[in-house]
Amino acid sequence: MRSFVVSAAAAALTGLLMLDSSALASSAEIAIHGAVDSKSPSFWGTYDTLFANAKYVDLTHTITPDMPIWRGFGNITFSPSVNKFSGEAFAYDTDGFVATAYKLTTDQMGTQLDAPAHFNPYFAASDEIPATFALRKLVVIDMSSQAAKNSSYALTVNDILKWENTYGRIPKRSVVFVRSDWSKTWPYVNTDVFPQVSLEAVQFLHQQRDILFHGHEPLDTDMTPNFDAEAWLLKHGYAQAEGVTNLHLVPPTGCLLSTGFPKFIGGVGNYVRYVAICQPNWAYGVAPGSTPEAPLPQYNTPLLWNDAKGHRSRD
Q1: Model confidence over 194-239: pLDDT tens digits?
Q2: I need a labelling partner for 208 at 20 to 30 A (CA). Which of 18, 37, 125, 239 fits?
Q3: Which residues of 6-32 are buried (b: 16+ CB within 10 A; e: fewer)?
């Protein structure tokens, strides 16, 4: 989740206020921030009353060299970063630190956010997706019972209407994640046959409910020969989430979704960290302060390069 922080300029402004020079302080504040409404509430209070005790549920797969990817993409590899001058890998004993190099054959893998430019060069690339995607209302539509009976089941408009009959109308500009439980067997998943989201369903969500984007657990939206649902979304400028996990740990309504991703220039996909922020009394997730954060925990075993695994590990 994005935090609201006080800038160095604002800290300097506090010093000016302590001088009791109201005119100078007012001019400085307007110059830095624009006109300020003194009655506007601080989000710090909102954090203290709501988010400080909330439960945070990670909806993201860990990126590993052997993680499932679409069959058309090559394998990804990790390796120790090498000092370009010595040709040797950086090491704790000689350099004081280590680093990792990643050979990524695609930006379409793992838990991700598809940019529309993946299918249409005239719409947004990854670095052009606005920061407003950072925090939204989260809806979870559960079709896991249908997927358990039919591994290629596709979400329908009727499924969405049934959900609304129970929980109410889907909020405008919210994010809708479709639970199928496909990810429960990750990384041993079938990337060729999987639960889908139908073209009619994604069209309904965007055209009739005006959502921000939808997401699903498999690495593709649908199994049609021409990727009908995915193609329609991206070619019309809509982003979508793929490779989402742990949706069985999130309620159908009431949570927020935090979306964080790097800004690869010209990218058409993004490795994403999705986190559901749920009510304090929710049974799953972790609350701030319930685990070591600053400093982070120290482990009994060191993190060392493991040739057999192709990445650093503690075993």
Answers
A1: 999 999 999 999 999 999 999 999 999 999 999 999 999 999 999 9
A2: 125
A3: eeeeeeebeebeeeeeeeebeebbeee
